[in-house]
Design goal:
By secondary structure, this protein is an alpha+beta fold. The protein folds into 2 domains: about 35 residues; about 280 residues, Ferric Hydroxamate Uptake Protein, Chain A, domain 1. Helices cover about 20% and strands about 40% of the residues. Strand 1 and strand 2 form a beta hairpin. The N and C termini lie far apart (about 65 Å). Belongs to the TonB-dependent receptor family.
Length: about 325
């Protein structure tokens, strides 16, 4: 027997072991999906459906991915006010905040300052990642008010074969409400600490001829923390490291969704402004002129035709 044969056997055993270990892990993750639903729900209840995993609607127990679904009822029950609050409650996600943007990582990995470029964010299937850094910030500056979210579908793992770039850690698809979910007008007003104020007015309706509409306008203003201490700037020339009244934030958002038959027209106008107290990018410390501003406008026309229960064509 050649001396190299035991080495070949060892390599072969390692390869076979890795293959079966991968199968066990995959089967375990799939089993976790089913175990999250109790036996009575599997037998008698409605098993949730998901679209994002394969780009057609299927039961979560049939989807080839690890999926979490957060509904509007859960968002209201737990008092989430931003999409970042939702992600912070999900297993495998971690979030951080640098007084300018919020960041999220997955599976213990998150590069500071990468603007969440490894997660693909969708709103009703429309790509939200911007075209400069390919990033997205799911906090107060998100394009849709959280009260207009019907559910959030979170698909873990790479999905670049379906969605292209950014879908490395996962895909987050925000499904918005429809006119039938409101059936009239809604007015919401809230206030909180740090002189924070938030308001929203929405109108939704589904008419007898099948036409459906949802219109909404919302705004948010906050003064933030009035005094923040940074030891790195503890010097008389830098106000002894104290940033005063430079942590404010405000957001304005308009959203419209019209649908008739297989056609859906949706549009967004959003602008977000944030004071930056950390003097990032070598700017002046404790200077109210240091600000971040971003805006987004998009109009999306979608035609969706369902040929069968597993074949959906969208354009």
């Amino acid at each position: 027997m050649s001396k190299r044969q035991p080495l070949y056997y060892l390599v072969a055993m390692l390869v076979i072991g890795a293959f079966f270990a991968g199968q066990v892990i995959a089967e375990t993750e799939f089993a976790d999906l089913e175990s999250s639903l109790d036996d009575e729900e599997l037998l008698f209840g409605d098993i949730p459906s998901v679209f994002s995993a394969s780009k057609y609607e299927q039961k979560v127990t049939e989807a080839p991915a690890r999926i979490s679904i957060v509904t509007a009822d859960e968002i209201q029950r737990y008092g989430h006010r931003t999409l970042m609050d939702v992600l912070n409650t999900l297993p495998g996600f971690q979030t951080s905040y640098d007084r300018n943007y919020s960041y999220t990582g997955a599976r213990g990995f998150g590069v500071p300052g990468d603007f969440n470029t490894r997660i693909l964010m969708l709103v009703d299937g429309h790509r939200i990642n911007e075209n400069i850094f390919d990033g997205v910030v799911p906090d107060r500056g998100f394009v849709v008010d959280i009260d207009l979210i019907d559910r959030v579908e979170v698909v873990r793992g790479p999905a670049s074969s379906l969605y292209g770039s950014s879908a490395f850690f996962g895909v987050i698809n925000v499904i918005t409400k429809r006119g039938r979910d409101l059936q009239g007008a809604e007015v919401s007003v809230a206030t909180g600490s740090q002189e924070s104020y938030q308001g929203r007015i929405s109108y939704g309706e589904r008419f007898d001829n099948g036409f459906e509409m949802l219109l909404s306008a919302s705004g948010y203003d906050s003064e933030g923390d009035d005094r923040l201490y940074y030891p790195e700037f503890d010097d008389p020339a830098s106000n002894n490291g104290i940033a005063e009244n430079v942590d404010d934030a405000n957001n304005r958002n308009l959203y419209a969704k019209l649908s008739y038959g297989d056609f859906t027209l949706s549009g967004v106008y959003e602008e977000y402004e944030k004071g930056v107290p950390t003097a990032s990018y070598e700017t002046l410390f404790n200077d109210s002129r240091t600000r971040t501003w971003e805006g987004r406008v998009y109009l999306d026309l979608k035609y969706q035709l369902t040929w069968s229960t597993i074949l959906v064509q969208s354009s």
